[in-house]
């Protein structure tokens, strides 16, 4: 089969080279974007008088035919045509004849492929933000249903201070909010048009890059042609935003896995979002959470892969850059898959309020509050801390919790204690006492929920 670039060659490409260098097996994912870009390009060639109107019409017609063939799954891609750009162009020429060969006027595959990827990511970023909003909604739903659910807050995975389960859910809402903002910010660099940069230096044809940008709905165009064909940092930004989002998801995954163990028994994931064991009939495994946690690795890998590909590449285009695609596609698919499952998995999660409360009643997570109590009575906090440490030790030795101590026992440690201490130590009081902005007090968490819902309504 003759190559679109065959003129300069006297021999056929080695079969293995053809296979090794082709990207069609994966860049066919850019088919829609490739046609979209070509339609805008050829319209511009007509508008600028570079191609006669009848040629433009024929080419557009042909491109639409190729597009419907692609949509019906009828276009047969071949490795001999290397990549999506040449597969589409070859088909176009087959369909409309030599006039199809005019499409590539004033354009190179270098600015073409960069344009396709900008178009591809522009749509995906919007879709992912939408999915993140859905996940936030599910988390807020759990927060609202658990404004009265107290459970142990941890540091070092040791019981620290009781918090509202709603507060914990809202912490993730805040993380995903920053992920959304990062994606939205990266969108500014995705929303730029490289087309018109040619192979690297621009083009001799009097094209109108702004007109193409307008047709494709790009906010700006690249200022420098060398940069336009060499830049892949818009993909790096996306990949790093995705990696951070996966890291957040993975932390939540870890908690879901822990919480659904018999040892914690804080939550139960819905049957629809868990799987069984082929040997142990009693098992209900949190596979989705585990797998999202596991897939975080490949998303990190994709970021590092591309950073390494680009490192030390001289300007402008180098074939190395063809390696920019698979990791990007894989990241979009992986993140999309995770988010699609996560929202309903969180929404259907059963929270075992009773078990959480039991945990709080059987620990020393209210110890800080007695220290604060003595400190508010004028004792230096360090001394109060020391005294409470001794009380906790006494309790452990006598198999008691703080609320089990009698007033006489309290008084052995400090004469400052009075009956009010029994109220101070109640979990509800412990939680509601943390009324600082951003704290776990019910009123603060309600405020956080209201703000988050308001933010969701605005988007
Ligand atoms: N398939 C190529 C890629 O993905 C398209 C650009 C090819 N340009 C070139 N000069 N060989 O990077």
From TrEMBL:
GO terms for molecular function: lyase activity. It catalyses: 2-(N(omega)-L-arginino)succinate = fumarate + L-arginine. Pathway: Amino-acid biosynthesis; L-arginine biosynthesis; L-arginine from L-ornithine and carbamoyl phosphate: step 3/3. The keyword Cytoplasm applies. Its main location: cytoplasm. It comes from the Bacteria. The keyword Cell membrane does not apply. This is Argininosuccinate lyase. It comes from Gordoniibacillus kamchatkensis. The gene is argH.
């Amino acid at each position: 089969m003759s190559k679109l670039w065959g003129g300069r060659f006297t021999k056929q490409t080695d079969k293995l080279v053809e296979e090794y260098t082709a990207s069609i097996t994966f860049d066919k994912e850019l088919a829609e974007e490739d046609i979209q870009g070509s339609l805008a390009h050829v319209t511009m060639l007509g508008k600028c008088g570079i191609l006669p109107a009848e040629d433009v019409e024929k080419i557009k017609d042909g491109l639409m035919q190729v597009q419907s063939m692609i949509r019906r799954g009828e276009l047969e891609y071949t490795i001999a045509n290397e990549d999506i750009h040449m597969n589409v162009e070859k088909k176009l020429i087959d369909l409309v004849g030599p006039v199809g060969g005019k499409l590539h006027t004033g354009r190179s595959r270098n600015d073409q492929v960069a344009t396709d990827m900008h178009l591809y990511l522009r749509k995906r970023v919007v879709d992912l933000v939408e999915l993140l909003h859905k996940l936030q909604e599910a988390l807020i739903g759990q927060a609202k249903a658990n404004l009265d659910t107290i459970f142990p807050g941890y540091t070092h995975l040791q019981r620290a201070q009781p918090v509202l389960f709603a507060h914990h859910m809202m912490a993730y809402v805040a993380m995903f909010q920053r992920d959304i903002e990062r994606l939205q910010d990266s969108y500014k660099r995705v929303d730029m048009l490289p087309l018109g940069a040619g192979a690297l230096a621009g083009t001799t044809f009097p094209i109108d890059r702004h007109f193409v940008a307008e047709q494709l709905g790009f906010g700006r165009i690249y200022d420098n042609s060398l940069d336009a064909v060499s830049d892949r940092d818009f993909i790096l930004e996306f990949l790093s935003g995705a990696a951070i989002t996966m890291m957040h998801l993975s932390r939540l995954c870890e908690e879901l896995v822990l919480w659904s163990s018999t040892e914690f028994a804080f939550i139960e994931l819905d049957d629809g979002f868990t799987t069984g064991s082929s040997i142990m009939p009693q098992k209900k495994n949190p596979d989705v959470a585990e797998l999202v946690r596991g897939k975080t690795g490949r998303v990190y890998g994709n970021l590092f892969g591309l950073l390494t590909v680009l490192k030390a590449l001289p300007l402008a285009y180098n074939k190395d850059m063809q390696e920019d695609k698979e990791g990007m596609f894989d990241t979009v698919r992986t993140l999309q898959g995770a988010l699609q499952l996560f929202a309903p998995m969180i929404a259907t999660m059963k929270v075992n309020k009773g078990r959480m409360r039991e945990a709080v009643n059987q620990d020393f997570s209210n110890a800080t509050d007695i220290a604060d109590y003595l400190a508010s009575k004028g004792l230096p906090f360090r001394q109060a801390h020391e005294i409470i440490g001794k009380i906790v030790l006494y309790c452990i030795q006598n198999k008691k919790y703080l609320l089990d101590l009698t007033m006489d026992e309290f008084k052995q440690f400090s004469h400052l204690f009075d009956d009010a201490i029994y109220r101070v130590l109640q979990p509800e009081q412990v939680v509601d006492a943390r009324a600082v902005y951003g704290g776990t007090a019910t009123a603060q968490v309600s405020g956080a929920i209201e703000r988050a819902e308001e933010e969701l309504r605005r988007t």
